[in-house]
Each structure stands twice: as C-alpha cells, then as structure tokens.
C-alpha cells in the first residue's frame, strides 16, 4: 500500500484532490494539487488511503478555522482597546457617527463643472 504523497515540489503534505476516477480492484486514480506551489500530480490510492486523505483535510480545515477565529477575536479586542482609548481621551464625538452626504463621483480625466 503506497502512502499518501507529499508534494514533490515543496514537500508540503497539504495536497488536495482535484478529480478522481474509480479503477479496477477498488483503487482510485486521483489528481492531486499542492496549494502552496501549485504542482499537480496523479496517483492510484486505495479506499483506506483516500479515507486518510479525507481525515488529514478535515484536520487541516479545523486548524484554519481555529486560526481564523483567533485572528478575528484578536482584531476585535484591538479595536475595542482603540475605541476605549479614544473615548477616554475624548477624541470621539457624535459627528464621527454622522452620515456624510454622498458626492457624485467623477471619472478619470473629468473636470469639475463651472459655477
């Protein structure tokens, strides 16, 4: 049984299936792509290996979601701290929240109209 491949270009184990075709004897011909260096490769794998690939992808997905949620929480905390500091220094007023009148956009090379 061949093990799941790492990328031959960069060594990443984050290879992702693009397409697959069922072969005889239960094997699956899979076209894999590396998301880091974009190398594309083909290989035959057993159903057990494909289950392992699916498990690895699920674990990687959970890492991405966790990192995203951590970054969002850190950014929100930083924004709250900035707003708190601005309020403490009396740098924020009601006019900061007023809607601004929309001015018509001028395209490139358009001159303003004469009065």
Plain-language structure description:
By secondary structure, this protein is of the alpha+beta class. The protein is built from one helix and three strands. The protein has a three-stranded antiparallel β-sheet, with helices on one face. A hairpin with a 5-residue loop joins β1 and β2.
Give the secondary structure arrangement, pairings included:
Blueprint: E1 16-22, E2 28-33, E3 40-45, H1 47-88
Antiparallel strand pairs: 1-2, 2-3
What are the key terms here?
115 residues; alpha+beta; three-stranded antiparallel sheet; 3 strands
Give the overall form.
elongated
- What's the gyration radius in Å? 27 Å
Share in β-strands: 15-25%
| Proportion in helices | 25-40%
Uncertain runs = none
Order of secondary-structure elements: EEEH
What distance lies between the first and last C-alpha atoms, to the nearest angstrom?
81 Å
Major beta-sheet overview: 3 strands, antiparallel
Number of strands: 3
How is this structure best summarized?
The chain contains 1 helix and 3 strands, in the order βββα. The protein has 115 residues and is an alpha+beta fold. It has a domain at 16-88.
